[in-house]
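Hello,

Following up on my earlier ticket. Below are the two sequence lines again, exactly as submitted.
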Amino acid sequence: MFVDSAGDSLGSLEGFITCSDAAVWSRHSFRMSVIGMTYEAEISRVNPSCIVFLLDQSGSMADPFGGGDAALRKADGASDAINKLLSNLVTKCSKDEGVRDYYYVSVIGYGGGVAPRLGGALSGREIVSISELANSPLRVEDRRRKVQDGAGGLVDENVKFPVWFDPVADNGTPMCEALRFAKKLLQPWVAEHSSCFPPLVINITDGEATDGDPSGPADEVRAIASSDGNVLVFSVHLSSQHAAPVVFPDNDALPDQFARSLFHISSPLPPHIVAAAKQEGINVSDGSRGFVFNAGMVELINFLDIGTRPTSLR
Amino acid sequence: MLTRNPSIAISDGATESSFASLWASLLVAAFVNSSAAPEQRLSSAVRKGRRVWRRIVDSKSLPWYAEEKRRIGAFATLLGTCFTEQGVWGSVAIGDSCFFRIDSSGMADCFPIDDENAFGSTPPLICSRNTELRSLRTSKGTWAVGDLFFWMTDAAAKWFIHQARVGLRPWELIASFPDSAAFESWLASTRVNGSMHNDDVTILMLKVNG
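Thanks for your patience. The regenerated structure is below:
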């Protein structure tokens, strides 16, 4: 993949990106605003950021993960992982006086149609602030987890597990329509928050789009930009095969055409995410994309944790 | 002439933890209301503050997202100084809140941190859920009429140490503000020009007159 740029380095850069696979060359053009450093904005109450989950809810998501997670349906694992991340995000934003609106969040499911999936009091809401999320979980479950007992052993502990949506698995995979929905959501939001840390779209899928080539719609989402950079699109592919995961690859030498197309629609990792991944012992380079192929639950949870790390919350 | 032995304390609560401002207030109140020597005051302030904090906080009904943080507890620094009539001061500290004594020669005492590069993002802190006291530091010295004392939270202390190191007299600047509005306006300008880290700032100043 190469970028051939012409024009001034400050202001607008029109670039041509060529994507290749074994049979087809296609050209996509987009406008990227370059105003000095990017992906450095401090996230604050006056300058919040946004995370959009696009969640594949097609029929095949009812199948179990491959390998060691074989007892767990992909739909259940994905909804648990997202609900857990939302809970962690709320906790990160909560102070004595309440929950600070450092983030806005959207959960969009795509399967039988494309629609917002938050439940309960937030039903039908396309985008909500983190404080609204905190105050209206669909329900809070009592679950048990293992914690250190202070004497070298593990003991069961009751924990509260808030849930904002339930898993769904039905119909096809209208990924293009989901990406267009994300664009429709983010264009006005970024226009209103023009110096935000760029929003992050996380696409979680177990298979190919059934409504066309997602590259065009993904490029249009990534073309939306704040003064701090372009919207990030990350992709997680969930596997039902017993296959080795590929985590944050920096080139498209991948098992198949589907993996390559997901690679090409995924944004490069911003520097602080590269640094966070290295700290966790993950093999990444500066060209690594926000993409995991053949993810099991562990890879999914780690990806969501590292991919949503902020630069700083003020 | 001192009619009693006054003490002054400052505590900086970690706002990521829950009920940190309550914890900081309890630590300071317990420290100044004690009559023991500085190091004993600190440990008894932690024991007493912890009992009161738990009584208040554990009885509250909280939303789900505050319960886990309550379980973990509140964290804060504590810096306390006791003065005697005989011209002696004694200070005790856990964390990165700092004490300074200025005399006619300039900055005479600087405790517990004297290097602007030693301020980090993970100072030792006192937790409301245990009585562990890590990295407790003590110091003492003399004072005289005319001396100026400061107690500051970390962002201000780092700025103060840097200013003094480059040959300026930041104590004169702080002492020159006629009111809190002037101080706040100056503080906002330091955040904009980057000379002060964008964090909560508390400064106490005491001048000993004859």
